[in-house]
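Appendix B. Raw example, untouched.
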Amino acid sequence: MNAERGGLRTASRLVVKVGSSSLTTPQGMIDGDRVDALVDVLAARRAGGTQIVLVSSGAIAAGLGPLGLPTRPRDLATQQAAASVGQGVLIARYTSSFARYGLRVGQVLLTADDMMRRSHHRNAQRTLDRLLELGIVPVVNENDTVATDEIRFGDNDRLAALVTHLMHADALLLLSDVDALYDGDPRRPGGANRLTDVRGPADLADVELGRSGRVGTGGMVTKVQAARIATGAGVPVVLTAAAHAAQALAGADVGTYFHPDGRHPGTRLLWLAHAATGRGRLHLDHGAVEAVVGRRMSLLPAGVTAVEGDFSAGDPVDLCGPHGDAVARGLVNFDSAEIPGLLGRSTRELAGSLGPEYERELIHRDDIVLLEPDLSGASHV
């Protein structure tokens, strides 16, 4: 056992995410043998006393057979129809597989909105906590029938990272059809090198980005981003193939281990950075960018040059630099209709002309998170 990976072996609460490619046949249908193999590993760990939350893709794939579709549909409406039919098939398959070990499962379907709105966020947390208390294995999936995030971006990776934080889990295991993160495409002549450990962004500097925006092969960008979300919340992550799940959970040196960075941000700020979507945009001048990003100060009306979007007080909005790139996100204190009349004016001036309620910042510094560039060079959440 690798000593540094012992956290997965000893975790008392664990989130495991599995993608469609690890559950399907070459024809794209759900493979019962693969489901059983995964459940065998999870049930063994569950028998040892570990609480497990399974984040599983595969609803669309499970719906192909019942709908008579030979391949995954391209149009969104048919994808959502396949998800609607397939989600029941998928949960039934997990139900029967876990039942072999006397375990029951509970279906939890979430959308990005459930992770964005605080009341929904708390409700999801209470439900999952109670399921675990009752000895149930929650099976979480994006609600593909009404949400488009997973269908467009795939693999539930970000959702798994957010559920890890939501549930205060001790570790996250990301299961893929690729056995690790590589610094290039291992299928090319000469192959590529496996990254055994990632301790920070510097370790990813030489990782090759594919033309489709993927790291190496296997759609790794979303998985690496999910790992960064989890490790940024102080949680270790292992990325490996589903076939190596047992070894990974035992602390063996398989896959890629993402080391936690020791930070433990509050739930609200993690939600703001990674689950919220900006409802509008505030364009900042250079001075305001320096104040907000460089000195971590509140955003004042005098530093804002333009407003985009229709939003209400309390909504998340993106803060953009002079070149239009999003550098931060915050919870705004005013409606979008109010802000144009405040721009370029000091809070003292506004209080004198409009009343004391306007002697406050547009966004308080405690309600601002900085956005960092993603692996393709653009701002990401």
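End of appendix B.
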